[in-house]
Design a protein that fits this description.
The protein has about 160 residues and is an alpha/beta fold. About 50% of the residues lie in helices and about 15% in strands. The chain has a five-stranded parallel beta sheet, sandwiched between helices. Helix 2 runs parallel beside helix 3. It starts with a helix and ends with a helix.
Length: about 160
């Protein structure tokens, strides 16, 4: 009995994995279509936990303003903290403000400084990271946690391998 249950669960996993490719493809197509219309941008990576009164939040906001004043848009993960600071700086300077949000069960909502037509939600981290790297002409990395490091190392690896 136990063996049959295990086999059935494994077969369901295999079947669901096969069909997931269509959802993944859909995220790529949606991301490519929206991001290709945005223009040159710089991605800003950093902690979601940095508060507005912190010096790194304020620095990220100033950097984003300068990026926008130099003719680039700003791409962030779309959440709070450093991401919000980046979008806020771009928004206040009148520039393009993009948010690539990830759907998580326990956190992260769009910050209020993302252009309404430039907020894109993702279920898959790897699709989201492709959008960060493919559509950025530069990267600003502020202090953060494992997510920030993951984004940094993804960008470095793709740059190093000319991908």
């Amino acid at each position: 009995m136990r063996r049959n249950r295990h086999s059935r669960e494994w077969n369901e996993v295999k079947t669901n994995d096969s069909w997931a490719i269509f959802k993944i493809m859909g995220e790529f197509v949606n991301g490519y279509e929206k991001m290709s219309k945005i223009g040159p941008c710089v991605s800003i990576f950093g902690s979601a936990r940095t508060k507005p009164d912190h010096k790194y939040y304020q620095l990220a906001e100033r950097i984003a303003k300068k990026i926008t004043e130099s003719g680039y848009g700003v791409i962030t993960g779309g959440g709070p903290g450093i991401m919000e600071a980046g979008n806020k700086g771009a928004h206040l300077a009148g520039g393009t403000s993009v948010g690539l949000n990830i759907d998580l069960p326990f956190e992260q909502h769009d910050n209020p400084y993302i252009d309404s037509d430039k907020s894109i939600n993702f279920d898959y981290f790897f699709v989201r990271k492709v959008m960060f790297v493919k559509y950025s002409q530069g990267f600003v990395v502020m202090p953060g946690g494992f997510g920030t490091l993951d984004e940094l190392f993804e960008a470095i690896t793709l740059i190093q391998t000319n991908k």
